[in-house]
Amino acid sequence: MSSILGTYKRREVSFSEGKGVYLTSTTGEKYLDFVSGIAVNSLGHCHPHLVDTIKKQSEKLWHVSNAFTIPEQERLAKRLTDNTFADFVIFVNSGAEATEASIKVARKYFFEIGQPERNRIITFEGAFHGRTLAALFAANNKEHTLGFGPKVDGFDQVPFGDHEALKKAITKNTAAIMLETVQGEGGVRVVPDYCLKPLRKLCDDNGILLILDEVQCGIGRSGKFFAFEWANIVPDIVPIAKGIGGGFPIGACLVNKKVAVGMKPGTHGSTFGGNPLAMSVGNAVLDIVLQKGFLENVQEVGSYFETKLKEV
């Protein structure tokens, strides 16, 4: 019997090695990996550039406190802000942590500008934002929340894609609307461009912040750096993780200058978030994703798969 607490329904197969798009089991079978660690291994297994980066950084410095300036962290933050809508970045270790940071930033913004009553966040049915308590109740999947009461308040949920229900859910207490640009657990449901653009306008008209969760679909998976770029809109807050680490645990919350006003020393923190080893890996991922032609190739390969799958 395993000593691991049974929170997963695990398959019997185990893997001993990964290379590119292939995994090799402990019994020698070779598998083409379509799971990708659940949207994590953005550059495949053991990408040479990532392996080389980890080796070099692990011989120099793994961890120091965020009480000190971390050059690798500064570099990754600069590259993320240079290539996205964001002005600032908070580094954490996972998507759930990035979601929690996003919620805190949104609520603290309204507190800072003298509207503390605006603390509720509208979410969508079928969402998944992580396994920590606030993230769990934000998604409000009954299978996931059962037995973990009392309910974490502050979230109002509406049906996916129902713009009228969304408008009715907005009150004087609404701080933000939070959704995945592409729902993962909800069934790979894409929020269409014609929904995202009115959504941005709805937020602007009501003074509401827009949080777009790109934990699964971000960092090039859609053929753009962020999936929301296809709709030519700009959010206020974006949690990311998974692909930015290429298999190494990294998460981040990207924010614009406006909403950052409330986040001062002591308002948030992470012991391990932004450590030199993780930041070096994140920079190595960007070395490749930001290469000329990389995202165009993602688009071409994606179109090829779409065409062939439709033939099946």
Automatic annotation (TrEMBL):
<comment type="similarity">
    <text>Belongs to the class-III pyridoxal-phosphate-dependent aminotransferase family.</text>
</comment>
<dbReference type="InterPro" id="IPR050103">
    <property type="entry name" value="Class-III_PLP-dep_AT"/>
</dbReference>
<dbReference type="InterPro" id="IPR005814">
    <property type="entry name" value="Aminotrans_3"/>
</dbReference>
<dbReference type="InterPro" id="IPR015421">
    <property type="entry name" value="PyrdxlP-dep_Trfase_major"/>
</dbReference>
<keyword id="KW-0032">Aminotransferase</keyword>
<dbReference type="InterPro" id="IPR015422">
    <property type="entry name" value="PyrdxlP-dep_Trfase_small"/>
</dbReference>
<dbReference type="InterPro" id="IPR049704">
    <property type="entry name" value="Aminotrans_3_PPA_site"/>
</dbReference>
<dbReference type="GO" id="GO:0030170">
    <property type="term" value="F:pyridoxal phosphate binding"/>
</dbReference>
<dbReference type="GO" id="GO:0042802">
    <property type="term" value="F:identical protein binding"/>
</dbReference>
<protein>
    <submittedName>
        <fullName>Aspartate aminotransferase family protein</fullName>
    </submittedName>
</protein>
<dbReference type="InterPro" id="IPR015424">
    <property type="entry name" value="PyrdxlP-dep_Trfase"/>
</dbReference>
<keyword id="KW-0808">Transferase</keyword>
<dbReference type="GO" id="GO:0008483">
    <property type="term" value="F:transaminase activity"/>
</dbReference>
<dbReference type="Pfam" id="PF00202">
    <property type="entry name" value="Aminotran_3"/>
</dbReference>
<keyword id="KW-0663">Pyridoxal phosphate</keyword>
